[in-house]
Specification:
- Chains A, B: It catalyses: Fe(3+)(out) + L-ascorbate(in) = monodehydro-L-ascorbate radical(in) + Fe(2+)(out) + H(+).
- The structure is a homodimer of 287-residue chains.
- Chain A is mainly alpha-helical.
- Chain A has a single domain, classed as Four Helix Bundle (Hemerythrin (Met), subunit A) (Up-down Bundle).
- Helix content of chain A is 66%, strand content 1%.
- The first copy, chain A, contains eight helices and one strand.
- Chain A is globular and about 70 Å long.
- The two termini of chain A are 35 Å apart.
- Chains A and B meet through strand 1, helix 6, helix 7 and helix 8 of A and strand 1, helix 6, helix 7 and helix 8 of B.
- Strand 1 of chain A pairs antiparallel with strand 1 of chain B, so a sheet runs across the interface.
Chain lengths: 287, 287
């Protein structure tokens, strides 16, 4: 094919501990070393800019949802009142969006590549467990609020999507622990389930975002009925602008996470399709 | 690496006209021919099952949204009334979900691989243009309804997400035409923008799904206030069950589309990262 050869050099894969992005093969073959280094550096810089943008958007979402609940909705309590409900958006955004999304892109950070994968795997599992716990407590907040008011649970489409996202997340975490972290799972099973884990991971984030958007939208229609026209949702009072912006920030964060996950050059070298060897994940990798 | 060699055979890429999935390289090297054929056949069968599942889910979504608008919401008109609004969910689901999602996975169908790519590229562009036109008419339906009632446009988070999805879709279509279909765009620009096109394509589908979920949820809260408790959304009357199921079908369809897009083995051979040669898309490819 290229250069009339029937094989491709694998030198571009480099050591797994490389902390900059390897080049696409074509460039490796045809470009001088200086150009290769510049291209690696460019990829690394673009990754970190995307990663920092994601961090900034997720922090801005967290600030927005806290300000909305604390400043506009009266703050927090755990007494079955509307103040208990206020934990729901804060905990779902913190767990199912912010922690989840940042946990999902952890392996893409080149800084982590020069080291044994196991601590990063444990950190990924720990971040996701914390995200799951926050989400479940966030669900308890709204169930308790509904039960105290005598409102049925799980009737709206928002609740169907949200509970599905959380249930899939719990299944994904348990399956991830059993298949990728504990040592008894065979390599063939890990290889088979890794694409499923990656696909389901992205799908859960999509569901979380859909649940957040529908939830914020629903809440604003509930609370911004207004005694005057200027206070209704349709007049876009400050609270509506803040909560709509929260939705926009969540969506923008999701798009950045998908951008990072979709770029194959930003995959950890030992996770790329062209890396054929696959070691059980409790072995000492990349040392 | 594998077998201690510093190169990988490229024979697995096969001719671009192959109509079954090429094997992963490891199997190609280590497995007998019969096993290789069985694996290719398995990949092809799993793809077509996923593709047919996606088609079935998208058709079920279309039937559901038509039944909801026609049977439960009174049918269709273009007179500024609620009957004009009824075009909105039907056209958005038909355009921004069903046609869009199926158009996105068109290149993955192995049946198309044995042929020149150009007709499939034109079909992809035509399906997407039809999807865009339906979406824009769907937006006109709701703008007309709002204007006739004196309701402001674009205040809800649902509308912000929906208009963003449609605007990004329009930009994506124009950029796709200019960069990938018309002949004057240089190869380097096509290579640079293809991952962006793929990422933005998936992101637009995520936004569409979030807009659909929030829109269905909002509409059900609007219309199912009920004169008796049994008619409210919280009591899950038949209309609520139907429309919630529509939301679930849309989400399931989206997950199948993401599954198909995420599987690298299901990419058209000349679109895979390991295929280094890149020809301008109006040239006679794969012949």
């Amino acid at each position: 094919m290229q250069q009339g050869s029937d094989c491709l050099p694998l030198s571009h894969l480099g050591p797994c501990g490389s902390e900059t992005f390897p080049l696409p093969q074509k460039h490796e073959v045809t470009s001088p070393r200086a150009s290769a280094g510049a291209s690696r550096m460019r990829q690394t810089v673009i990754f970190y800019l995307s990663f920092l943008l994601g961090l900034a958007l997720s922090l801005a979402s967290l600030v927005c949802v806290c300000v909305w609940s604390a400043r506009w909705r009266g703050g927090f309590a755990w007494d079955g009142s509307a103040l208990q409900f206020n934990w729901h958006p804060v905990l779902m955004v913190a767990g199912l969006v912010v922690l989840y999304g940042n946990g999902a892109v952890l392996y893409r950070v080149p800084l982590t590549w020069g080291q044994n994968k196991l601590p990063w795997k444990l950190l990924h599992a720990a971040l996701m467990l914390l995200a799951l716990v926050l989400s479940v407590v966030g669900l308890c907040a709204v169930f308790g609020f509904h039960n105290a008011k005598g409102t049925p649970n799980l009737y709206s489409l928002h609740s169907w999507i949200g509970i599905t996202a959380t249930a899939l997340f719990a299944m994904q975490w348990v399956a991830g622990l059993a298949v990728f972290l504990l040592p008894w799972s065979p390599t063939s099973l890990r290889k088979l389930l890794k694409p499923v884990h990656v696909w389901l991971g992205g799908s859960i984030l999509s569901l979380s975002i859909a649940a957040c958007i529908s939830g914020i939208n629903e809440k604003l229609f509930f609370v911004l009925k207004g005694s005057t026209e200027a206070q209704t949702y349709a007049a876009l009072p400050p609270e509506a602008l803040l909560a709509n912006s929260l939705g926009a920030l969540i969506v923008a964060f999701g798009l950045v996470v998908f951008l990072i996950l979709s770029n194959q050059k930003w995959q950890r070298p030992d996770s790329r399709p062209e890396e054929l060897a696959y070691t059980p994940l409790l072995q000492e990798e990349n040392e």
